[in-house]
Amino acid sequence: MLKALTVIPVRAPVQTEPFDLCATLLACLRAAGESLQDGDVLAISSKYASIAAGRVRKLSAIAAEPQAQELARRFGMDAAIAQLVLDEADHIFGGIELGFLLTAKGGVISPNAGLDRSNIPSGQVVLLPRDPFATAESIRAQLQAAAGARLGVLLSDSWLMPGRFGTTGVAIAMAGFKPIRDERGKSDLFGNPMAVTQIGLADALAVCAQVVMGERDEATPFAIVRGADLQFSDAPLSVDDVAIPWRRCIYIESLTIGLLPASEPCAK
Questions:
Q1: 3 state SS of 91
Q2: According to the model, what pLDDT value does residue 125 have?
Q3: Cα 60 to chain center, whole Å?
Q4: Alpha helices (H) in the chain, listed in sequence order
Q5: Cα angle vertex 10, ends 9, 13, to 5°?
Q6: pLDDT tens across 19-40, in order?
Q7: What is the pTM (predicted TM-score) of this model?
Q8: Tally of CB atoms within 10 A around 112
Q9: How many CB atoms lie within 10 A of CB 75?
Q10: DSSP helix/strand/coil, 207
Q11: Could you give the C-alpha distances from 117 to 32, 74, 79, 128, 147, in angstroms and in order?
Q12: How many C-beta atoms surround the C-beta of residue 61 within 10 A?
């Protein structure tokens, strides 16, 4: 039987320096009168986790090398940001003259390798967690010990959907549950076999969490997602469990190797 899904926002103090993330979370849960229950998934802002781990950089301390200076000139960027993108990105596809490079970072296609200048003092930038899957697993282990319950954890962020206005949620990393539900070979409503469908459960939960966590001054870096139909597991997870190979990605393959010879983006 289908269950209702509940998403509970949990406010927390604004942070700009390294801090104890799990201790802060447990204190915030107590202050909110909430507790973690068996089967809960805790969504945590990846930015909040990064600040806790000291992944904040002052732009004035970044020395831009010639390649970064050229990217900055070409795409209208801050040269220090361009240098950080070069340092952080797994791959840079290109950019637009609004100060953004399209990059791959940790299995997510995003602008500027996930660097974030919002909700941090001016002149500073927050990087994505250095090892997000290890971070998620460490948090899960600590929370399960404290709560005495079986839990899932996901580090969430916001990203841009190709071709759409607005940001939505995405799971940077997760621990404690299988992030993908494979529907291939199963039947649809009319008995047709599903050929390619795999449901991104972790990303779907990140979207739900993002709705209550917000993007601006909500100060809500945590959300409890309760009632999700998940398969919990202690198996270690990595980017390979959620990131599709580029040759099978409709966006990357179509716009690079699979681009038709006469294709050009159409202006609306």
A1: strand
A2: 97
A3: 26
A4: 21-32, 46-52, 66-75, 79-88, 132-147, 201-213, 250-255
A5: 140
A6: 999 999 999 999 999 999 999 9
A7: 0.93
A8: 23
A9: 17
A10: helix
A11: 28, 21, 14, 12, 34
A12: 9
